[in-house]
DNA sequence: CTTCAGGTACGATGCAAGTCGTACCTGAAG
DNA sequence: CTTCAGGTACGACTTGCATCGTACCTGAAG
């Protein structure tokens, strides 16, 4: 299990309240939605998400996601990698990631 | 469709961020967990939930749940009824209500 | 070495939200 | 009518949190 030098909670320890609070924020949810949509689950750069906020705030948001147990952060010193903890999240809260795709009203009459 | 004199958003208008924010609170989530667990979906009294908070705060929380589109509130003047909008929630966010049952670490080694 | 971009640490700020106190409304029961 | 319990309205208080400014660290490239 390489790539978890910045660790969050174990899979069984994920708290639903913490997770919901993490996903309540627009910016964090957009990150998670992108990650959940990419089925390859590859490691992504921190700034590969187009977030309209400062660096410091991005650091804060990624920390919240990590402490909620939703992502791993891999520290390379002057660069950071992000990876979705899909297996752990799915095991603990099956179906949660699928909900992220239902963000904007999409299930209704695609014309 | 009787019993919606205090109305929330339409089923298609439910917002994921609003819903997550509503479910992030411990007290509101306990209410929703109870409602989701009762498959009869009967109308319940407001004080049938054992919430360790004042009346005013309960009023506030039920309002938040209603405005998120998760419940209906039926006003009887000096009494109020609560009913889960199960069909609407399931249609918009399928599987969300099932997640509420996974609150405390329950899916792990039931011995 | 210096330079530079990516990230973090710390503090400050502004706003949203959970909580309660006081006062008031509503309908049912005496 | 009065009384009483369930609920609401308004306001105040406090905490949490998203955001940013400044300063600093880290590793790679000149």
From TrEMBL, chains A, B:
For the HTH arsR-type domain, which residue ranges apply? 8-104
Give the matching InterPro entries: ArsR-like_HTH, HTH_ArsR_DNA-bd_dom, WH-like_DNA-bd_sf, WH_DNA-bd_sf
Q: Which GO terms describe its molecular function?
A: DNA-binding transcription factor activity
What's the superkingdom here? Bacteria
Task: Extract the Gene3D superfamilies matched here.
Answer: Winged helix-like DNA-binding domain superfamily/Winged helix DNA-binding domain (1.10.10.10)
CDD domains (UniProt xref) = HTH_ARSR
Q: What is this protein called?
A: Winged helix-turn-helix transcriptional regulator
Organism of origin is Streptomyces coelicoflavus
